[in-house]
Write a structure and sequence with these properties.
Layout lengths: L1 E4 L5 E5 L2 E5 L21 E3 L5 H4 L2 H8 L2 E3 L2 H9 L5 E2 L6 E4 L2 E4 L1 E2 L22 E2 L15
The structure holds zinc ion.
Length: about 150
């Protein structure tokens, strides 16, 4: 597996034909990122929470590459409201299984909103933020404490 770090919390995990993009915050939104939303051909997209520095480029990547998306149910609903398709919406502890492995939502201590307006930079609370570890090839491989 190849792992590309694009700055902040944005990682690209590439394994064969699969490219999992986590928390896209890319140039120019993140002036320190080494890639733009046009540079990454994600087949899968996972979001930990809705803060702008984790989702700023999610919609742009998702509209262009049509990845399978995984996000906490409230954030998944927001993605769909932005016109994103192929969205899975597990809740805390939920696992989404793919042919290459799985993504499980685990607790993370933080807050969770999506970008709002200039007057109100953060929108309503969107529930619990999640860690999104990439799992083993089979769901049964997850330890109980995750
Ligand atoms: Zn945050």
């Amino acid at each position: 597996m190849e792992i590309r770090y694009h700055g902040h919390s944005c990682f690209e995990l590439i394994d064969g034909e699969t490219t999992l993009l986590v928390d896209p915050f890319l140039a120019p939104n993140n002036p320190l990122a080494d890639a733009t939303a046009e540079d990454i051909d994600a087949t899968h997209l996972a979001l930990t929470h809705g803060h702008a520095d984790h989702v700023a480029d999610a919609v742009a990547v998702a509209r262009r590459t049509k990845p399978q998306c995984v996000a906490m149910v409230e954030l998944a609903n927001w993605l769909e409201e932005q016109g994103v398709e192929n969205v899975s919406d597990p809740n805390l502890g939920g696992t989404v299984i793919f042919d290459w492995g799985s993504i499980k939502l685990v607790p993370a201590w933080h807050t969770n909103t999506v970008p709002g307006s200039e007057e109100r930079p953060f929108s309503a609370e969107l529930g619990t933020p999640m860690g999104v570890p990439r799992g083993p090839d089979h769901q049964d491989g997850w330890p109980d404490h995750l």
